[in-house]
Amino acid sequence: MSFAYICKVGLFGSFCAGMFLTSCMERENEEASKQVIEVGKAISSPAELKASDYFDEIRYVPLETRDDCLIGSYPDIKLLDKYILITSANRQCLLFDKATGKFKCQIGHVGKDPGGYRSVDCLVDELNGRLLFNGWGHDLISYDLNGNYIGKIEVPCIQENVYPSNCFVINRDTIAGFFQNTLGKEENRVIYFQEEGKVLAVLPNESQCAPFEINSMSVWKGESAVKEFGPSALRGLVYMEGKDPETASVMYPNNSNFWHVGKDTYFMESFNDTIFRSEGTALIPHLWFDCADLKWDYKDRFSINKSRGLFISQVLDSEHTLFALAITGLYDKDKRKTYSVAFDKQKGETKASLFEKGIKDDITGFLPIQLMTVSISGEYGGILPMEDIAKWADKHADQELPKELAALEDLDEEQNPVVVLMR
To answer: Which residue spans within 161-210 are E strands per DSSP?
Structure first.
């Protein structure tokens, strides 16, 4: 073989290798770009969100109406594999069959007796087939999906009177707890522990900010809270005004900082623009909210002057799509705006629309959709009050109701609400 031929082959091989590496780098860059949620850019140019861009089907489930399962005010929703869980401000925790809407059972009760819990707002632990409620001490009250009391899980104390503010089941024997830095003095971030109480790891809070002193506080609930702060404020958002008149703070008591997408676990905290994947007892950066010129730094989290920036109040995540709620002007009621954000993970595309407009149902042509929850398998859900359905039917007398609703004998506003499911 001649030297010239070897050189040509070598040059050609180098060229191919270069092209291959360039191609790989381009694919890596393309994949990397899909990991960025361009929320700042999307909010600067709002666009209509359409159901058909994110879902293949929409299904409506009228919930059975009986005296023993008549749903009270401010209903909230969580989705399991086979069931719909509805909780209300009337201290109800009700389980319905997802296929038929039939009432299954009441889960536990509010009370200080054995088996009693503090609030119906609970954690769905589908991995273990149970629900976990906050007890009256630093404990979790456990019930199975047939309404049977299982027992109590003690949350470990890592220092004198230092406990996490909310917990999440990572896998079959590990629980994580998050420490909300409501006053700017929290030294801890996350604790991992086993049910029997063994502490596996405590991750420090490495984000610093000036301390916050409370002057007064108020609690927002119901429709007004949802309109201003999104669905996760439905059952309560604590708004705090500081002793320094240029400071304020908020707390979503019922928001979970952890969530599952299939078998994977993710984490995000307020005033941090990164979503982390939880692996073992470590948090690995996974997705990033690019807020552009609306970035609100953690160190300024209590500053009213900085609150024109973006605050991510809720994340509803699945394998193909991530939905989020983003608020600008959090501490300024005259300038406050809430946006629905949709991130298509396949296309790497981010869109945003004002929350009040909802997601247009261009699949069934029915009412706009407000997402409230997502299951571990990626099924999204919301609630439609019968009053809204009746108003729509009166206004659109020439249009047919979705088939699941057309079967209703009447649209009595006293009936239980309808659950909308999307995949």
So the answer is: 166-169, 174-178, 188-194, 199-204
C-alpha–C-alpha distance, residues 216 and 404, integer Å = 47
List beta partners, residue 369: 359
pTM: predicted TM-score of the whole model, two decimal places: 0.90
Q: Which of 112, 111, 109, 80 is closest to 96 using CA atoms?
A: 80
CA–CA distance, 330 with 323 (Å, rounded to integer): 19
pLDDT for residue 165: 86
Q: Where are the alpha helices (DSSP H) in 34-115?
A: 39-44
Query: Beta partners for 353?
Result: 340
What is the greatest pairwise CA distance in the chain?
Answer: 93
The Cα–Cα gap between 172 and 129 comes to 10
Query: Considering only CA atoms, which of 182, 382, 149, 207 is closest in space to residue 302?
Result: 182
Neighbours of 326 (CB within 10 A): 25
In degrees and rounded to multiples of 5, residue 151 shows phi and psi of 160, -165
β-sheet bridge partners, residue 144: 130
Return the SS3 of 140: strand
| pLDDT tens profile 352-363 | 999 999 999 999
Closest CA to 137 of 149, 153, 151, 124: 153
- The length of the chain in residues reads 423
Neighbours of 224 (CB within 10 A): 10
Give the list of residues 6+ apart from residue 399 with CB closer than 8 angstroms, or none: 365
Residue 373, both tokens? 């929850």
The pLDDT of residue 161 is 86
Report residue 139: phi and psi, to 5°. Answer: -150, 165
Distances (CA, A) of 253 to 130, 171, 290: 21, 23, 26
Distance CA 183, CA 213 (A): 7
Round to whole Å and give the CA distance between 156 and 391: 50
